[in-house]
Amino acid sequence: MRYQVDTHAHTLASTHAYSTIHDYIAEAKRKGIRIFAITDHGPDMADAPHAWHFINQRVIPRIVDGVAILRGIEANIKDEFGNIDCNEKMLGELDIILAGFHEQVFAPKDRDTNTRAMINAMKNGLVHIITHPGNPRFPVDIHAIAEAAAKYNVALEINNSSFLHSRVGSDVNCTAIAKAVRDAGGWVSLGSDSHVAFSLGELDKSLEILDRVDFPAERVLNQSPRVLLDFLEAHGKPPIPEFAEL
Q1: pLDDT of the residue at 169
Q2: Is residue 19's pLDDT more than 90?
Q3: Which of 8, 112, 125, 195 is the most buried (most CB within 10 A)?
Q4: What is d(CA 71, CA 62) in angstroms, rounded to the nearest whole number?
Q5: Which residue from 188, 48, 70 is spatially nearest to 129, judged by alpha carbons?
Q6: Could you tell me the fold of the domain covering 5-243?
Q7: Phi first, then psi: what are they for 153, rounded to 5°?
Q8: pLDDT, tens digit, for every residue of 20-36?
Q9: CA end-to-end distance (rounded Å), the chain
């Protein structure tokens, strides 16, 4: 595998997903994945876990069987002001904050409204990664979001699941996003968006997009655990002592 980092995975706490943390750890160990993030859906989704699920992630060990685990969330962008369903207590316990559009929380709007909502979510300073921004159901001004992502040091995700199971038609938008982020000097993050452990670390389709546009490897958060951790620390997240050797 080219990268041993996956920033986007759902456990059965999101009830349309099917694997436990134990399942993910076993799969990560089998595939040589060094670090992955648990990013269940934020509580405004109909089948998402309660806010306590995110607060109580502090009980999850940092490293199990040589696999490092980041405590995270895929929050929902709720409105055009960029508000997300992640409260202060949750933020204090989580290592990584992903956020994106989901139709059940924020119905698709016109291009200008969607763009404004996404940029405001980045501007608010709480979000590290915007998930599946290439979803054709939510048209955005791609150059504007790429410029904003570079300005606010937020990564735009190239979501592998978008080319396999959902968000049909994302490939054209994702190619344009990768080009725009490349030219703006920003970051991309590659996420499997796994809803079952078997797909953890499967990023081949996303990598095809990056290869297609000659995206610089040094601007990919997944290139190493340390690059990802440094990125999170640059956003004010404290160093995690257990990860010092990563």
Answers
A1: 79
A2: yes
A3: 8
A4: 9
A5: 188
A6: TIM Barrel (3.20.20)
A7: 60, 45
A8: 999 999 999 999 999 99
A9: 18
